[in-house]
Amino acid sequence: MADTENEREQAADENRREDGVPDSLPECHRRGCTERARFVVLERYQEETGHGAVEAEAVLCREHTTEESPANLDGSYADYVFRVEPLEAAPDGDTA
């Protein structure tokens, strides 16, 4: 999962077509996967040192989303978040 806003911006730039128009959906974040991302997975947890929250986010295809689960439960705190949300309705109307 990307940990910084800068990394998310770079990923968005990589998903733009050469003509500068972004594709309707970005590519899956997993290395080697060329499927279109359908979901965004977000996990917010307490940094190991206890000095702040870390927010990790990745856009994933349907298959890779099903493999996701909370990875930092040992860093859970009052504002801990693990969330999976659809990017937008799939072209065929299937959002699940």
Topology:
Layout (H helix, E strand, L loop, with lengths): L4 H10 L24 E8 L6 E8 L1 H5 L14 E6 L10
Antiparallel strand pairs: 1-2, 1-3
Task: Please characterize this protein's 3D structure.
It is a single chain. The protein is of the alpha+beta class and 96 residues long. The chain has one domain (5-16, 28-86). The protein has 2 helices and 3 strands, in the order H-E-E-H-E. It has helices at 5-14, 62-66; strands spanning 39-46, 53-60, 81-86. It has a 3-stranded antiparallel β-sheet. The longest helix is centred in the first third of the chain and has 10 residues, at 5-14. It is elongated and about 35 Å long. 11% of the residues are buried.
Features:
elongated, 96 residues, 3 strands, alpha+beta
Structure classification:
alpha+beta
Assembly context of the chains: single chain
| Number of helical regions | 2
Q: Sheet bearing the most strands, described?
A: 3 strands, antiparallel
Distance between the termini: 21 Å
Q: How would you sum up the global shape?
A: elongated
Taken together, the total number of domains comes to 1
> What percent strand?
15-25%
Mean pLDDT: 79
Number of strands: 3
Radius of gyration: 15 Å
Widest sheet, order of strands: 2-1-3
At a glance:
The protein has 96 residues and is α+β, with helices and mostly antiparallel strands.
